[in-house]
Amino acid sequence: MSDNVxxxxxxxxxxxxxxxxxxVFVFAAVTFLAGCASTDPGSQAGAGREAYQAHLRSDPLGxxxxxxxxxxxxxSETYYNDSRALASAALEHLGVDYKFGGDEPDTGFDCxxxxxxxxxxSLGLKLPRRSADIARQGIAxxxxxxxxxxxxxxxxxxxxxxHVGIYLGNKEFVHAPRRxxxxxxxxxDIAYWKKRYNGARRLGPETLHSASLQ
Length: 214
What we know:
Layout: H1 20-37, H2 41-58, H3 60-68, H4 77-91, E1 103-104, E2 108-109, H5 111-123, H6 131-134, E3 139-141, E4 151-154, E5 163-169, E6 172-175, E7 184-187, H7 191-196, E8 197-202, H8 205-212
């Protein structure tokens, strides 16, 4: 769900799209080569550990999901295309009025209602109703690795993962923001959202497979 927020907009340059598995491989290769050439490889390893620990502290639930679903980080391009379909489905409803508890375009959407409607229409995936429960699905994704179709979460009600939207690229996301507003696109670089960002999830193979059984 969401709280009242100011009407804001903005965008910045698109962040690089890099899968978690590829980034881990590249990081390992660079670290190895640096160790061959550097006189102080220990300092580089220490910096890597500090960055990883900072990520764990910022999104502990995401760290748990990443640890327990590590294999899902190697999702195929098929699932990447599926996640893009999720974003496209949500964009079809720009301008639809916000309605608390709403999950249909004819009556209106709240934040999680828009996400679960788009996920069911584009992927056949039935997600939980509450944004905090949706945050327990899929694969944890670092903000630097976001790509179109990832779910982005914010703390807007004094609790983690109380608001959710769908990432579009270029540091923008589509969401149903608040009462009196409509489904729209906003920038994650706006101070309000930047301060409240909680983490991101990617709907991976296991999540989509589970949906097909429902």
